[in-house]
Automatic annotation (TrEMBL):
GO annotation, biological process: cellular response to fatty acid; ethylene biosynthetic process; fruit ripening
Domain Fe2OG dioxygenase, first and last residues per copy: 152-253
Entry coiled-coil feature ranges: none
Keywords: Ethylene biosynthesis, Fruit ripening, Iron, Metal-binding, Oxidoreductase, Vitamin C
InterPro entries: DIOX_N (IPR026992), IPNS-like_FE2OG_OXY (IPR044861), Oxoglu/Fe-dep_dioxygenase_dom (IPR005123), Plant_2OG-oxidoreductases (IPR050295)
Organism in which the protein naturally occurs: Carya illinoinensis (Pecan)
Protein name: aminocyclopropanecarboxylate oxidase
Family classification: Belongs to the iron/ascorbate-dependent oxidoreductase family.
Pathway it works in: Alkene biosynthesis; ethylene biosynthesis via S-adenosyl-L-methionine; ethylene from S-adenosyl-L-methionine: step 2/2
A Gene Ontology molecular function term of the record: 1-aminocyclopropane-1-carboxylate oxidase activity
Pfam families the record matches: 2OG-FeII_Oxy (PF03171), DIOX_N (PF14226)
Enzyme class (EC, first level): oxidoreductase
EC number: 1.14.17.4
């Protein structure tokens, strides 16, 4: 099996830029995931985020999680559970406006550090979109613009902990799914593993690496790239030992953004008609309403359902 793609972003500034861009292209086309090193976010900031996230879980969420799981009888399950995940989560919104000040139980230093971290991740997401667009031959700024609604993009963070699970063979940390949005940036635990992606029919571990950021592509980038890049099924396997931290930040389209394949990536008239209009044209908010009920099902019927609802008309070709 090939090695999971690890990209050293520092190499973009030197003689290895071409080879590094090729590695990014291959990861987007064949994996839907890659791991970044030397991404420009300081180790000190990441260490502070990790420390405060783990302290917050211990202080404010661990006992609640244990009580919730006990109340649902999950610790003693005898058959596979298909409708719940073994995870403790809360959500932060950054764009178009922040809700960090409204989240209960967060210490002031934790609020401050998560705001700072979000700013760095937003910048990194936009840098990556530019690199992806360059590899696709799209005009500068195209992908960022494609994700902007009238109020810009949506940017939010899901902070998760995956505590030790007594029956990891019967309940997933997080069931298999593709992500609905644009580009996802994950700061994951470097000691406790669990994240896996599906490639060529096999579940492959996403390796924990200290101070790395894991990138994966969402359904909207698959549509905008007309299938050149794919969103990929992934899941979290619960572990019997260790508490796995996961901080996933989602750079998504604005709610009223109109999503459709980039005209430059759509075959011109006269070419294979089947290739021309593989993906529908739709408003992101409409897709999210559908996704809410179908997250843990295949993405293809979601695309078909958007087409069946009428979409938003034909897509121009380049």
């Amino acid at each position: 099996m090939e090695n999971f793609p690890v990209i050293n972003l520092e190499k973009l500034d030197g003689e290895e830029r071409g080879a590094t861009m090729e590695k990014i292209k291959d990861a987007c086309e064949n994996w839907g995931f890659f791991e970044l090193l030397n991404h420009g976010i300081s180790h000190e900031l990441m260490d502070a985020v990790e420390r405060l996230t783990k302290e917050h879980y211990k202080k404010c969420m661990e006992q609640r999680f244990k009580q919730l799981m006990a109340s649902k009888g999950l610790e003693g399950v005898q058959a596979e559970v298909h409708d719940m995940d073994w995870e403790s989560t809360f959500h932060l919104r950054h764009l178009p406006y922040s809700n960090i000040s409204e989240i209960p139980d967060l210490q002031d230093d934790y609020r401050k550090i998560m705001k700072e971290f979000a700013v760095k991740l937003e910048k990194l997401a936009e840098e990556l979109l530019e690199l992806l667009g360059e590899n696709l031959g799209l005009e500068k700024g195209y992908l960022k613009k494609a994700l902007c609604g009238s109020k810009g993009p949506t940017f939010a963070t899901k902070v998760s902990n995956y505590p030790p699970c007594p029956k990891p063979d019967l309940i997933k940390g997080l069931r298999a799914h593709t992500d609905a949005g644009g580009i996802i940036l994950l700061f994951q635990d470097d000691k406790v593993s669990g994240l896996q992606l599906l490639k060529d029919g096999h579940w492959i571990d996403v390796p924990p690496m200290r101070h790395s950021i894991v990138i994966n592509l969402g359904d909207q980038l698959e549509v905008i790239t007309n299938g050149r890049y794919k969103s990929v099924l992934h899941r979290v396997i619960a572990q019997t030992d260790g508490n796995r931290m996961s901080i996933a930040s989602f750079y998504n389209p604005g709610s009223d953004a109109v999503i459709y394949p980039a005209p430059a990536l759509v075959e011109k008239e006269g070419d294979d008609e089947e290739k021309n209009h593989v993906y529908p044209k739709f408003v992101f908010e409409d897709y999210m309403k559908l996704y809410a009920g179908l997250k843990f099902q295949a993405k293809e019927p979601r695309f078909e359902a958007m087409r069946a609802t009428g979409g938003l008309g034909p897509i121009a070709t380049a």
